[in-house]
Structure formats: C-alpha cells, structure tokens
C-alpha cells in the first residue's frame, strides 16, 4: 500500500466503464477510478454520479481520472485535488470507447441531462 492507505497502486481497474451504469443500463460522460479497490464509476456530471456514490457507500476517499490523457487524483474527504503514485494499468478507458458512452445507450439529448 501507498503511504496514503486509500491508495493501493497494485489494484487494477475493475472494468473499462462504469460498472453500476453497465448493471442498470445507464450511460456516462467521464470515468473515475477508485484508488482503493479499482471500481470504475461515472463522474459528477454524469446522470447517475456513481463515483461519488461509491465513496459515500464505501468510504474510499480517493479517485483518479480514468480518462485518456488525464492523471489527476481527487480526495472526496478534503474536497480537493491530491497527489498519487502511478497505478496498475490500464490507466484510462479505451480511447475507442469515446465519451459519452457506451455507444447505443447515450440519448440524443444527453447534454441536457448532465449535472
């Protein structure tokens, strides 16, 4: 484990998309990766806000962006960006997945449904 016990750099991401959206047939805008357990959740702009819900349910406080080209960490407890180590790959969703995603479930009026 990392010095911050909420970050385990050896844990790989649990999925390529938001697992809760996949379960309930939803869609997402951007993805966040829990640095404790690897769960992938959708961002707070997404309709279901599963990354924040995961923090609320589990107490796992730190996420890393799971978007291509982004490497920032967010600490829900301090409500601020934080630092973190390199995490087990992959470090982002597949580029071909696009955003919003998944294709076929994103409604035509998706922009009006963002938070």
UniProtKB/TrEMBL annotation:
Chain segments carrying region Disordered: 85-115
UBP-type domain residues: 1-99
Pfam families tied to this protein: zf-UBP (PF02148)
PROSITE patterns documented for this protein: ZF_UBP
Name of the featured protein: UBP-type zinc finger domain-containing protein
The organism of origin for this protein: Leifsonia stereocauli
């Amino acid at each position: 484990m990392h010095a911050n016990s909420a970050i385990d750099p050896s844990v790989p991401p649990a999925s390529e998309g938001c697992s809760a959206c996949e379960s309930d047939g939803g869609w997402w805008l951007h993805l966040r990766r829990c640095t404790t357990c690897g769960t992938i959740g959708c961002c707070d702009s997404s309709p279901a806000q599963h990354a924040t819900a995961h923090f609320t349910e589990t107490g796992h406080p730190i996420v890393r962006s799971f978007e291509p080209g982004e490497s920032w960490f967010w600490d829900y407890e301090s409500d601020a960006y934080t630092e973190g180590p390199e995490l087990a790959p992959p470090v982002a969703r597949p580029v071909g997945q696009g955003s919003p995603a998944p294709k076929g479930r994103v409604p035509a009026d998706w922009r009006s449904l963002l938070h």
